[in-house]
């Protein structure tokens, strides 16, 4: 492995969408981190990169298929050699696609697992290899209530999210003694997005009563996890609006 050309700190957000992932990237950029953000299409990252840059931060967008091992290895190598050490890694790919188990296809079930679980393994493994050599770093996984219990009609999503939670548990136990903080964030509830606004207007109407999650407030918790002292590391953080049922 080659050495990065500078000592700037990098946050890598895999799955930097318009809501949670983008907010996390902005939050770390405010703290002086270079935000490296990925989606399958680099064009969709341009507004996020431009927003961070306009606010005085530094950001770089990368097109990457998070399910492709060669693409992931090349991405981590490029970031580490051209920009700096990845100090914080956030895996934020969802794939929440409901379907009755009676109608679910093998192809879609496998694709959801690939997106929401397998890609988390690939990216986290490559980042962990770098962090271990430096004996520091933070790895954060975005989870969901589906990772704790499976709901009717969400067998594929629940299977993937259970898997990513188990991956996080195993990594935390293995890498914690090497000074790598691994944490899993359960996000339970609707998030303030265009999708929720357009498809669930009654739910979105509760925004003024703090009935849906604000992406910026979610992002604050990711920064909190990264900046925790290691004598009191959190493994699992559960985020939900005050009126969300448990």
From TrEMBL:
Transmembrane segments: none annotated. This is NADP-dependent 3-hydroxy acid dehydrogenase YdfG. PANTHER family: OXIDOREDUCTASE, SHORT CHAIN DEHYDROGENASE/REDUCTASE FAMILY (AFU_ORTHOLOGUE AFUA_5G14000) (PTHR43431), OXIDOREDUCTASE, SHORT CHAIN DEHYDROGENASE_REDUCTASE FAMILY (AFU_ORTHOLOGUE AFUA_5G14000) (PTHR43431:SF7). Coiled coil: none annotated. InterPro entries: NAD(P)-bd_dom_sf, SDR_fam.
